[in-house]
Amino acid sequence: MTMLAAAGIYLVLDVNSPLQNHHLNRYEPWSTYTKEYLNNIFQVVHQFSTYNNTLAFFAGNEIVNDVLSASKSPAYVKAVVRDIKQYIRSNSPRLIPVGYSAADDLNYRVPLTRYLECATKDSIEAIDFYGVNSYQWCGEQTFYTSGYSALVDAYTSFSRPVFFSEYVLSIFWYCFVTDY
Protein backbone atom coordinates (compact mmCIF):
# COMPACT_ATOMS: atom_id res chain seq x y z
CA MET A 1 0.00 0.00 0.00
CA THR A 2 2.89 2.33 0.71
CA MET A 3 4.30 1.81 -2.78
CA LEU A 4 0.86 2.42 -4.27
CA ALA A 5 0.55 5.63 -2.24
CA ALA A 6 3.97 6.78 -3.43
CA ALA A 7 2.73 6.31 -7.00
CA GLY A 8 -0.47 8.27 -6.25
CA ILE A 9 -2.68 5.19 -6.52
CA TYR A 10 -5.78 4.91 -4.35
CA LEU A 11 -7.67 1.71 -3.58
CA VAL A 12 -11.37 0.91 -3.43
CA LEU A 13 -11.33 -2.45 -1.68
CA ASP A 14 -13.96 -5.19 -1.53
CA VAL A 15 -14.04 -6.41 2.07
CA ASN A 16 -15.27 -9.82 0.90
CA SER A 17 -13.31 -12.69 -0.61
CA PRO A 18 -14.26 -16.09 -2.07
CA LEU A 19 -13.02 -17.88 1.05
CA GLN A 20 -15.53 -19.60 3.32
CA ASN A 21 -17.02 -17.20 5.90
CA HIS A 22 -15.61 -14.24 3.98
CA HIS A 23 -18.62 -13.40 1.79
CA LEU A 24 -22.40 -13.46 1.74
CA ASN A 25 -24.17 -16.35 0.07
CA ARG A 26 -26.43 -14.48 -2.36
CA TYR A 27 -29.20 -17.09 -2.13
CA GLU A 28 -29.07 -17.73 1.63
CA PRO A 29 -27.41 -14.63 3.10
CA TRP A 30 -28.74 -15.38 6.58
CA SER A 31 -26.57 -18.51 6.61
CA THR A 32 -23.35 -16.55 6.03
CA TYR A 33 -24.13 -13.25 7.78
CA THR A 34 -22.51 -14.49 10.98
CA LYS A 35 -20.23 -13.20 13.71
CA GLU A 36 -17.32 -14.93 12.00
CA TYR A 37 -18.15 -13.22 8.70
CA LEU A 38 -18.40 -9.82 10.39
CA ASN A 39 -15.10 -10.36 12.21
CA ASN A 40 -13.43 -11.18 8.89
CA ILE A 41 -14.68 -8.05 7.14
CA PHE A 42 -13.88 -5.90 10.17
CA GLN A 43 -10.30 -7.22 10.08
CA VAL A 44 -10.02 -6.11 6.45
CA VAL A 45 -11.42 -2.68 7.30
CA HIS A 46 -9.12 -2.37 10.31
CA GLN A 47 -6.03 -3.34 8.32
CA PHE A 48 -6.68 -1.03 5.37
CA SER A 49 -8.21 1.96 7.18
CA THR A 50 -4.78 2.98 8.43
CA TYR A 51 -3.59 3.69 4.88
CA ASN A 52 -4.40 7.15 3.57
CA ASN A 53 -4.71 5.79 0.04
CA THR A 54 -7.62 3.52 0.96
CA LEU A 55 -10.27 5.55 -0.81
CA ALA A 56 -13.34 3.42 0.02
CA PHE A 57 -14.70 -0.05 0.75
CA PHE A 58 -17.14 -2.17 -1.21
CA ALA A 59 -19.59 -3.97 1.09
CA GLY A 60 -20.30 -6.41 -1.71
CA ASN A 61 -19.78 -7.18 -5.38
CA GLU A 62 -22.57 -8.54 -7.59
CA ILE A 63 -24.39 -10.19 -4.70
CA VAL A 64 -27.67 -9.33 -6.43
CA ASN A 65 -27.56 -10.72 -9.96
CA ASP A 66 -30.77 -12.67 -10.59
CA VAL A 67 -34.38 -12.96 -9.42
CA LEU A 68 -33.64 -15.21 -6.45
CA SER A 69 -30.72 -13.17 -5.11
CA ALA A 70 -32.74 -9.97 -5.62
CA SER A 71 -35.44 -11.38 -3.36
CA LYS A 72 -33.03 -12.59 -0.65
CA SER A 73 -29.91 -10.41 -0.44
CA PRO A 74 -30.53 -6.63 -0.56
CA ALA A 75 -31.40 -6.28 3.14
CA TYR A 76 -28.21 -8.15 4.04
CA VAL A 77 -26.12 -5.94 1.77
CA LYS A 78 -27.60 -2.95 3.55
CA ALA A 79 -26.82 -4.53 6.93
CA VAL A 80 -23.20 -5.07 5.90
CA VAL A 81 -22.97 -1.41 4.83
CA ARG A 82 -24.35 -0.35 8.21
CA ASP A 83 -22.04 -2.67 10.14
CA ILE A 84 -18.93 -1.52 8.28
CA LYS A 85 -19.85 2.14 8.79
CA GLN A 86 -20.42 1.55 12.50
CA TYR A 87 -17.08 -0.22 12.76
CA ILE A 88 -15.33 2.64 10.95
CA ARG A 89 -16.96 5.25 13.19
CA SER A 90 -15.78 3.41 16.30
CA ASN A 91 -12.40 2.07 15.21
CA SER A 92 -10.94 3.92 12.25
CA PRO A 93 -8.73 6.99 12.44
CA ARG A 94 -10.88 8.56 9.70
CA LEU A 95 -14.23 8.16 7.99
CA ILE A 96 -14.03 6.05 4.84
CA PRO A 97 -16.93 5.76 2.36
CA VAL A 98 -18.71 2.42 1.96
CA GLY A 99 -20.53 1.41 -1.21
CA TYR A 100 -21.63 -1.46 -3.39
CA SER A 101 -20.38 -2.85 -6.71
CA ALA A 102 -23.28 -4.05 -8.86
CA ALA A 103 -23.81 -6.20 -11.89
CA ASP A 104 -25.21 -3.99 -14.63
CA ASP A 105 -28.50 -5.83 -15.01
CA LEU A 106 -31.39 -3.87 -16.50
CA ASN A 107 -33.82 -5.59 -14.14
CA TYR A 108 -32.06 -4.30 -11.02
CA ARG A 109 -30.21 -1.21 -12.25
CA VAL A 110 -32.62 1.38 -10.83
CA PRO A 111 -34.48 -0.52 -8.07
CA LEU A 112 -31.30 -1.71 -6.34
CA THR A 113 -29.66 1.72 -6.41
CA ARG A 114 -32.79 3.32 -4.97
CA TYR A 115 -33.00 0.73 -2.21
CA LEU A 116 -29.33 0.98 -1.26
CA GLU A 117 -29.30 4.79 -1.20
CA CYS A 118 -32.38 4.94 1.03
CA ALA A 119 -31.97 5.34 4.78
CA THR A 120 -34.77 5.11 7.32
CA LYS A 121 -33.34 6.74 10.44
CA ASP A 122 -29.67 7.40 9.86
CA SER A 123 -27.53 7.67 6.75
CA ILE A 124 -25.32 4.96 8.24
CA GLU A 125 -27.37 2.29 6.47
CA ALA A 126 -27.22 3.96 3.03
CA ILE A 127 -24.38 3.45 0.57
CA ASP A 128 -22.02 6.37 0.00
CA PHE A 129 -21.40 5.46 -3.65
CA TYR A 130 -22.39 2.90 -6.26
CA GLY A 131 -20.06 0.99 -8.56
CA VAL A 132 -21.33 -0.49 -11.82
CA ASN A 133 -19.74 -3.51 -13.49
CA SER A 134 -20.47 -2.87 -17.15
CA TYR A 135 -19.41 -4.90 -20.16
CA GLN A 136 -21.53 -3.15 -22.79
CA TRP A 137 -19.06 -1.22 -24.91
CA CYS A 138 -17.46 -3.38 -27.57
CA GLY A 139 -15.27 -2.59 -30.57
CA GLU A 140 -16.47 0.20 -32.82
CA GLN A 141 -19.56 1.09 -30.81
CA THR A 142 -20.45 4.60 -29.79
CA PHE A 143 -21.80 6.12 -26.61
CA TYR A 144 -25.31 5.49 -27.95
CA THR A 145 -24.98 2.11 -29.71
CA SER A 146 -23.18 0.62 -26.71
CA GLY A 147 -26.06 1.37 -24.37
CA TYR A 148 -23.95 3.76 -22.28
CA SER A 149 -26.40 6.59 -22.92
CA ALA A 150 -29.17 4.52 -21.28
CA LEU A 151 -26.80 3.63 -18.46
CA VAL A 152 -26.02 7.29 -17.81
CA ASP A 153 -29.71 8.22 -18.02
CA ALA A 154 -30.58 5.56 -15.44
CA TYR A 155 -28.38 7.24 -12.83
CA THR A 156 -29.02 10.93 -13.54
CA SER A 157 -31.22 11.39 -10.49
CA PHE A 158 -29.20 9.12 -8.20
CA SER A 159 -28.06 11.07 -5.15
CA ARG A 160 -24.68 9.36 -4.71
CA PRO A 161 -21.53 9.16 -6.85
CA VAL A 162 -21.64 6.41 -9.50
CA PHE A 163 -18.59 5.01 -11.27
CA PHE A 164 -17.45 1.96 -13.22
CA SER A 165 -16.13 -0.58 -10.74
CA GLU A 166 -15.47 -3.08 -13.55
CA TYR A 167 -15.41 -2.58 -17.27
CA VAL A 168 -13.78 -4.76 -19.85
CA LEU A 169 -14.36 -6.25 -23.25
CA SER A 170 -14.53 -9.99 -23.47
CA ILE A 171 -11.87 -10.76 -26.10
CA PHE A 172 -13.58 -14.03 -27.03
CA TRP A 173 -16.89 -12.30 -27.69
CA TYR A 174 -15.24 -9.45 -29.60
CA CYS A 175 -13.32 -11.89 -31.83
CA PHE A 176 -16.47 -13.92 -32.39
CA VAL A 177 -18.55 -10.89 -33.38
CA THR A 178 -15.90 -9.31 -35.61
CA ASP A 179 -15.26 -12.56 -37.49
CA TYR A 180 -18.80 -12.54 -38.91
From TrEMBL:
It holds the Pfam family Glyco_hydro_72. Its main location: membrane. One of its GO terms (biological process) is fungal-type cell wall organization. It comes from the Eukaryota. It is an enzyme of class 2 (transferase). GO terms for molecular function: 1,3-beta-glucanosyltransferase activity. Its EC number is 2.4.1.-. InterPro entries: GH (IPR017853), Glucanosyltransferase (IPR004886). It is found in: Cell membrane; Membrane. Keywords: Glycoprotein, GPI-anchor, Lipoprotein, Membrane, Signal, Transferase. It is a lipid-anchor; GPI-anchor. One of its GO terms (cellular component) is side of membrane. Belongs to the glycosyl hydrolase 72 family. PANTHER family: 1,3-BETA-GLUCANOSYLTRANSFERASE GAS1, 1,3-BETA-GLUCANOSYLTRANSFERASE GAS4. Splits internally a 1,3-beta-glucan molecule and transfers the newly generated reducing end (the donor) to the non-reducing end of another 1,3-beta-glucan molecule (the acceptor) forming a 1,3-beta linkage, resulting in the elongation of 1,3-beta-glucan chains in the cell wall. This is 1,3-beta-glucanosyltransferase.
